[in-house]
Amino acid sequence: MKEIVRAIRSGHWPSLLAAWLHFGVSFMVWLLVGALGIMISEDFGLTATQMGLLVTVPLLSGALLRIPVGMCSDRFGPKPVGLALLAVELVAVCWGWLGATSYLHILGVGLGLGAAGASFAVAMPLASRAYPPAHRGLAMGVAASANGGVVVVAFFAPRLVETAGWHGVFGLMAVPILLTLPLFALLVRQDIGWSAGGASLRWGDETARLLKNPLTYWLCAAYAVTFGGFEGLASFLPIFFHYQYGVDTVMAGTLTAACGLAGSAIRPFGGHAADRLGGFAMLAVVFPVLVVLMIAVGFLPVLHWVTPLAVTAALAMGFGNGAVFQIVSDRYPKEVGTVSGLIGAAGALGGFVLPVSLGVLKDATGTYQSGFLVFAALACAAWIGTLFFTRRRNRAS
Q: Region 334-342: what's the mean pLDDT?
């Protein structure tokens, strides 16, 4: 632990704190619809497919925004871009509070909440460039651990609904956003996170160059499984626990919060381990473990078994997240904003696919089992890719 503390002190920790705060609050906002999904679906009488779409619209919107936001973060710096995202989030939650009176309206709110998902492409470059190369995996893991915001929103949102209603919960989310705006402006040093070299490149040329590298595609796939799996589960687990096991909304939120806490708390340790042992080596272990866990969850065991399995799966995903971004900071030090946007978009798309497939396949087959087995197959494909690039890297060295 002392070694981790020394590593954190080696960089500009106020910027790291700002990155963590921005991503944490934004992650709460981003997954708010998922935390309120049961209550909203009961109000509007939604099918399983409609519920799956409802909780994934913010994920898809965030995925699409991460690429341009990552480019803007490289060109203009994370400070102005991060403040702009918080402003959009504020507008979206106010709409959910005061104006979302139909299913179409709440889908529109979800689109606006995608700005919160794009926070990733601000927080990660900021954390990376605030630290020396030897500790960037840890720094990015710390910043990424702020996805623990899912713990707060999953635990408290169902409880607050009982007194404020789900519209009121949207309004309450304006408070942490308003508190974060001045803190982010004060803590972030203007020169950190802005790349003068990146500003001289045309965005399209830079992206095209990155897309010529096969490693970029594998990192996108790896993050789609690790982070996409985590956010997809965090969005859909309240619905899964409620409708599959008959637990009430508060208990469903509590169980989801436990999964979110596990997946977020482990991320700094995953990044630190990857700094020491290498991201490829870590992922070669994470993915087969995840395959086994998803197959086990797919068999839909009783609640007291499925809960620890889901928590352990979240741990594996969180550990894998830190490993992926150790590789990013090591291989793309000058384009970390743009690469973070590309990879983060793939991760968010992975989060979109999981809840939609669970909802659609539940309507088609009458069970959630097939959705979890599909995700296990994707994790297996990512494992095969990891072995391929590990062997290729060993040959090159």
A: 70
Report d(CA 12, CA 374) in Å as an integer.
42
Model-level pTM?
0.70
Cβ count within 10 A of residue 47: 12
Distance, CA of 20 to CA of 28 (rounded, Å): 12
How far is residue 216's CA from residue 336's CA, in Å, rounded to a whole number?
12
Q: Which of 300, 39, 27 is nearest to 164 (CA)?
A: 39
pLDDT, tens digit (0-9, with 9 covering 90-100), for 166-185: 999 999 999 999 999 999 99
3-state helix, strand, coil in the chain (%, to 5): 85, 0, 15
Q: How many CA atoms lie within 13 A of 46 on its CB side?
A: 25
Let me know: does 203 contact 75? Beta carbons within 8 Å: yes
Could you write out the DSSP letters of every residue in 163-229?
HHHHHHHHHHTHHHHHHHHHHHHHHS-TTTT--HHHHTS-HHHHHHHHHTSHHHHHHHHHHHHHHHH
- Angle between the 249-265 and 267-277 helix axes, to the nearest 10 degrees? 20
Residue entry with tokens 């087995």? 373
For residues 366-370, average pLDDT: 89
Q: Please name the residue that has the structure tokens 């871009």.
A: 81
Q: Could you tell me if 261 and 147 are in contact, meaning their C-beta atoms sit under 8 angstroms apart?
A: no
Task: Provide the residue count of the chain.
Answer: 397
Q: How far apart are CA 249 and CA 242, in angstroms?
A: 7
Which domains does the chain carry? Answer: 2-194+202-396 (1.20.1250.20)
Q: How many C-beta neighbours within 10 Å does residue 69 have?
A: 28
Residue 194 confidence class, pLDDT cut points 50, 70, 90: low
Rounded distance between C-alpha atoms, residue 133 and residue 268, angstroms: 15
**What is the spatial distance between Cα 52 and Cα 48, in angstroms, rounded to a whole number?**
6
Instruction: Give the integer Cα–Cα distance in Å for 3 and 9.
Output: 10
Q: What is the dihedral of CA 239, 244, 247, 250, to 10 degrees?
A: -10
Amino acid letter, 289: V
DSSP state of 135: G
SS3 state at 281: helix
